[in-house]
Amino acid sequence: MVIQPKHIFSYPKYWAECFTPATFLPTSREEMDNLGWDSCDVIIVTGDAYVDHPSFGMAVIGRTLEAQGFRVGIIDQPDWHNKTDFMALGKPNLFFGVTAGNMDSMINHYTADKRLRSDDAYTAGNISGKRPDRAVIVYSQRCREAWADVPLIIGGIEASLRRIGHYDYWSDKVRRSILIDSQADLLLYGNAERGLVEIAYRLSQGQSVASMQDVRGTAFVIDQLPDRWTLIDSTRVDRPGVIDAHVNPYMSEEELAAATGKPCRINTDKQTGEATLQFVPHKEIINRQRTVIRLPAWNKVSKDPVLYAHASRVLHLETNPHNARALVQRHDDQEVWINPPPIPLTTEELDTVFELPYQRVPHPKYAGQKITSYEMIRFSINIMRGCFGGCTFCSITEHEGRIIQNRSEDSIVREIETIRDNVPGFTGFISDLGGPTANMYRLACKSPEIEKACRKPSCVYPGICSNLNTDHSSLIKLYKRAQQLPGINKIAIASGLRYDLAVESPEYVELLVSKHVGGYLKIAPEHTEDGPLSKMMKPGIGTYNRFKEMFVYYSQKAGKKQYLIPYFIAAHPGTTDTDMVELALWLKTNGFKADQVQSFYPSPMATATAMYHSGKNPLQKVGYKTEQVNSLKTLKQRRLHKALLRYHDSDNWKIIHDALTAMGRFDLIGSGERCLIPANKQDSRQNRKAGGSFRTQHTGLPLKPKRKTRTQHTRRRGR
In the 8-state DSSP scheme, what is residue 117? Predict the structure, then answer.
């Protein structure tokens, strides 16, 4: 069945269209009065400072709803200690929309080591503490206190990645769906324009929010399952720890059907006309559009890590919007129902969303205050959405989907011209033409039919799928056209680059290296060893080496001295101490001294987080006796792996020394070429006992001075 969604800008406009678009969406009653509004139809509550730019969620949603004729107000970074700020714009006519902002509030507040951050890039002045922990829950509670009868809809990255029972790194337990804790009416996950426009329109037509249980990309709470749906237990999709009995090869089709409880059908031979009964597999007789998969209940996954890994695996199998089925998970006496993902926006729809009347600057109330996140994207342009890489530690695929949504070349060029002509401070430099991945623009499956049926988590792992089109010609054409625009001096590519795709197009690599790299290019091989790479779903280091050769060659050809800056992750599930030692040796051999390093951060719903919590690998069927994944949970382990990435820092030598000694790797302690840290006297004695031949001279670590003997003192005094 082909799904044909309604064009998001084809709905009849709401009556308030008579008001002209607001210069800035109002954040106060005074601004509403200046616009002639007596009320807002929709009020968006956000944890970020309001920046009217298409890279900020509140602006995109607000402007999209405004284009439908709705009056949208913004309550940005309210004081959450009471309901006063949540009443500042009055009672919304249709609904409250609540989001934590562009970042998960917990990740915004805490480092990977659970230390409180001292800054916030999404707050004016870079000041921390302007939003609460678990902002969606707190904001939702205050909205209910302010106007209890107003429909409450939650969304954004924080809500999106907590739509089912999820492992919470900060409390080290499996929390309930955020729908339960926030008591919201609806949750919209992923890019929500399509669903939110439909909901706003239906609410404006007098429908109740309780009746909107058919909108794709939504989740909601129900007391009991609806009628006329086929319920499948998730263990029939992917059995955790169960081995199916072998089928008796001597059974007839009728006996096989009777033994399995599945039907037969009449099959007629086209040549002989003979009719026989044929066993019908379960999946062939079920209407997927009316099928829901029951995940293990929250109280089970919260106590059984294997069931948690199983639930995570099943959820990720049901992410293709063209074949995904609904999911349901019981939470005590309530059911959390999750509809299939939204159908991606067409190029025409995405163009319209990005060309709405954004001011492309922060709200005037922040005049003179710097908002770091805005400064980073001020002169950058988003050319696409989504990512089919499927990296297990990343949440982009879970949130935006793996089908790439592309803008047209003309729309991108118009945005460049808008920046050139209207954005204050522009000097001719476009800081980025990219997205979640810089070079996935217009890359897709060669066959739409295969794409709609595919359930693979990645199109590029363990290798590039043979059905994937890797032609970079559209991106090359865009770069060349953009660079030739009057007033454009330089266009850089700052988004993450998928180098295993780039090497498939030498023409693209040459253009990138010769025209769009400013001396340094950051890429992310993440690791060098197969163990952790297989858990990340990242290509081997050989692909990086191939890209590096091309990078060096084309840099020299262009007469430029340029450098690759590789990024790596420490303490990722599946990584051993030996893996990190080998990575440190690779860094030293290649002359890299990392200034900043990244530790694995277990974000909600990511596949790698399921590995971290359960010790199982959801990339394959999980069971109680299946592969155990090494998870680094102690602070000491995580610090060691991080320290090994900065082996050259003397502050890390003590922890590395202790680890290498425990591993018996005395060959890496000393002054040799392969040594990671200097030796000390104790190492020398241990080495001699082991039959080694190290140089005993210390080359860096501070040692206590040798204690002078009585004889030495006597001789110096001439006695």
Answer: P
